[in-house]
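Changelog-adjacent note: as of this version, every example in the card shows the full chain rather than a window. The one below runs 923 residues end to end.
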Amino acid sequence: MKYSRFVALGALFVFFISTGALAITPSAAQIEQLKQLPREQQVALAKQYGVDINDVIPSTNTANNYQQERQVSQPARVENAFSKDELQQTQQIKDIESTSQIGKANKEQALKLFGYDIFSGQASGFEAMANMPVPGEYILGAGDEIQVQLFGKEQQSASITIDRSGVFFLPELGPINVAGLTFSEFKTLFQHELKTKVIGVEGIVNMGQMRSIRVFVLGEVFKPGAYSLSALSTITHALYTSGGISQVGSLRNVQLKRAGKLVETIDLYDLLLKGDTSKDLTLLPGDVVFVPPTGPIVGVTGEVKRPALYEVIGDESVFDVLALAGNELATAYLAASKLERLDQNGGRTVVDVNLEAQKAESIKIRNGDVLRIGSVLNELDNVVTLQGHLYRPGVFSWKKGQRVLDVIEDITDLKTNPDLDYALIVREDPTIRTISTIQFSVRDAFNSPNSDKNPKLESRDKIYIFAADGKRNLDVVVNRLKKQARSDEPAKYVEIAGNVEYQGEYPLSANMTVNDLIKASYDFKEFTDFNYALLKRQNFIENKIEFEVVNLKEQSDLTILLTPKDKLYVFSLNEPRAALLADLIEEIKTQTSKTVSQDLVSVQGQVRFPGTYPLSKHMTAADLVSAAGGYTESSYLIDFNVARFNTNGIDTSEFDLQTIPLKGDALESFALQAKDSLFIKGIPDWVEAETVELMGEFKFPGKYTIRKGETLAELVERAGGFTDYAELEASVFTREYLRLKEQKILEDAQQKLKQQMVMSRYNAGEYSTGSADSFEQLLNSLEGAQAVGRMVVTTEQITVNDGSLELRDGDQLIVPRKSFEVSVLGQVYQPTTLPWIKGDSIDDYIDGAGGVNQIAEDSDTYLIKANGRVVAINGWFTSFEIQPGDSIMVPADVSPIPTLTLWQAVTTILAQSATTLALISTL
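Full-length structure tokens:
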């Protein structure tokens, strides 16, 4: 009967395959018929026909189904599958995972339940294998296959299946009732029956295909239900088949029930932690594997080998829980352990636990407790740290009486080009952990190794060695000093700014002086003003800024002791001081009030750097002049003016104007007050040397220094007049202030043109495509254009003194050589210079340059004569004679750009610049 059904199912599989090729789905009845076979037979049949059984009957034990089941959100699964009490248990676990403070200081991850991941693999990997050895205690039953081999006078092999009555039937032996016998007992019985009933024949028996058994897996598993398993399956096989234990299921109280009675209880922790499988019993048909809800949950974290949440049973102590977590790590500090516990009021509390004490054995664990094992400190004691510009920085052992040179044994330990005058020791207070600094010189330490210049070290000191050509990088130290500041103890740092190598903030060491701060910044830069430096100090009592003038050449000033937040300003002899002092002056203005005066003074006139300066203590007029860089060459040293602000602070104020004679020590003895303003006069009629340049066809061209009021004709006469090749009619005269004015016009026109282009984009359609091209070409002609400031002069103004032009500084006269050329400029296809042909018209020359282009306004074409005079062309009957050296200018059509009213002036400037620059290039 069974054989016939197997053949029928084989035909069914053939049907599946053939219809599969035709994309026909098997009927439900056919699939149900196949489902009646045990899973092993289903797999065997599918394998025989080369078909994946999962394509026909999806297995409830496959990894894919299992993983899909695992992906279901746990809260939803719990809500649908468990009771109210079980939901509360789940929430308790989540509370321990999320609210525990344990490990957060060390950035530990949230604790996870221990052991559940081991059941999250593929269930099929844990099924009993068909070819595994059959134990002797295996109990035979209906469906088991026995393989028999007979030899002797007869040889025979047969596979016999125990029928439903539990009978093993071999024709030679007859029926044998074997149900309930162990495999060992059956083998003994078989040998006895064979010897008794068959003479001259021996035989052996082995287990073939074993029967399937049906068991139930119930309780807190992912897929509770009935399962068909191999007869060799154990409790753990059943758990894996059901998808594993859910997170509200107990790992320590898995129950095996048989015929309604509890047969065995297995603690899976014995399997996971000890590898003990003694209680993992083989299942029988009808067995029930039941997983109850988990028991009390506790957490263990910190310095343990296996931090996790654990299920506990009985009255475990803290040591028992510690053992579950694999015991402590080498870095654990058991005396500083903590026990987080839920109190009776629904809150959380922390209990200190010294696990090194014997009495800790009596501390019992409670549900919801979290045990944290403390860590030894990460910080090293009895060490010093050496870092910076060295070949071998690092941590070194410390012993009492040790000095810097015990760590830096030789000058060769330092890298190339070290700073030998500034090094730093950062020292930490052993009780409150605030830091302080000690400044020292490596040079002095090597010169006097047995003195205090080779400082003694303390445990945990950090020694910083710096490079002479690199920044100090002390931000971490300075920031820590700022953070440890208090209202009664300002942050111990100082600052240096200005003409030094390394500006910035530096730690304030004990007895630090102005000279020490300068060494910290390495050194002054070139051209330092040693006569005047400014030391800014913070008066913390009166909450105001005060100043002290420092002479960097005076030893007494260099030894001034610094106080917290002092700032030293060092100035250059050749650079203005306003930028360096801007923030300081603004700060002084900000703190000014009715009770705090505005401590600023100013100096104007003939000093190198006029401006406003802070009023320092006992500041005199001489100090202010020094702050401004000293006198200029043209200063008037007979007297000076002072404007002093006076007020009664109530209802009157005025400026008192004084003139102070500069006799004796008048400047040094004149004490300044807030808001005083000095004016240093200049020598009357003092003028700097003014020059004018003559270029071209002069007998003696070059730059000439001129006297006040000298004319152009007089200068030409001094230059020896002109050569025989000079073309006076084509002379070009330029003036500097005109050049600046024209350049400003060009820049304004360029800016307006860019604005017009932007507006045209917002008003799309207002201008044509041709107008867009006009914008682009006009802008290109403006970019990079340089004005020359040309001024039209006549031949008489150059050669005749009467009516000649009075010269100014920066004027330039260019007299070219006689030429017979005409230039065509502007909006023509090929701006160029053409040979002069007597009688040719303007149109002839324009045609010679390729004609006008598409943006030209040829009706406004004008002529620039050789001497720079512009001649407009108006009317049909106006005739012009083109002379050698003339230029023809074809302007652009700016009608699409109505707002660019400057364009006419712009085109003239561009033309004048082009002709002048072309002329200069030929000299």
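Structural remarks: The chain has a mean pLDDT of 81.
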